[in-house]
Each structure stands twice: as structure tokens, then as C-alpha cells.
Amino acid sequence: MADWPYSTARWQRLRKAKLSESPLCETCERRGRKVEAQHVDHIVAIAAGGPAFPVMDGLRALCASCHSIKTNALDRAGGKGVAIKGCGVDGLPLDPDHPFLTGGDTPLEGRGAVAQRPAAHTASQLVRDWGV
């Protein structure tokens, strides 16, 4: 493909700059692990209309394992769309496209379950009940 940027000097400079800025896998870091990043991933794939040379925020530094998981889940034909399973040490979903983070439909929708958020006063009641 003539428009593929990966063999260009411009991409190599951008890749090197991203890995210098983020030397650790961004997904593994969210899991509390320190793993060296070897790949620079387009957050929005070029094939999906993303820019070939995005700004740094349009790129993600990933280890080989996380890059393969993301590519197989999202970027290849027939991918199921679940890129990263699990939650980080902060309790938030690791997948930046998870509905919880994007404000989309509840992940439980369509499975016969009804997702309900606790009442706003629940946390303060628990604190009061325990005398903390």
C-alpha cells in the first residue's frame, strides 16, 4: 500500500519520539506493571480513517503482547471489538473505548440484567453507620 507510513523516515522519527516520551507500555502501566514498550499504535487505525502521522496524543506506546491483542480485537476484519479486558489499579476499565469511559450504553444491556448505580447518599450512609 503506497500510503502506508511505516517505512518512511517521518514515521520512524515519530515512533522514536513517542517511545522516548512513553518508554513503558501504557496498558501494562494501568495494570500496575512496568513493561517496556516496543510498538507505537495508532489509537484510530489508518484503515479506519485515522491520520498516518497523528499528534502524540493520537498514538499509544504498547508492548508486543498488548499491541497484538488490540490489533486482533479492533483493527483486523472480524475483530470482536474488545481490545483490553480487565480494570487498572484505579478500578477503571483498561480499554479506553469501554462504554463506562465513553459514556455509551451500559455493558450489561442486552444480557437480561439491569445495571443500577447506587444512590448518591449510599457512601455517606456507610461512613455514618460505621462511625468513621
From TrEMBL:
It comes from the Bacteria. Residues 13-68 form the HNH nuclease domain. Keywords: Hydrolase. It is an enzyme of class 3 (hydrolase). Its EC number is 3.1.21.-. Pfam families: HNH. One of its GO terms (molecular function) is zinc ion binding. This is 5-methylcytosine-specific restriction protein A. It comes from Brevundimonas bullata. The lineage of its organism: Bacteria, Pseudomonadati, Pseudomonadota, Alphaproteobacteria, Caulobacterales.
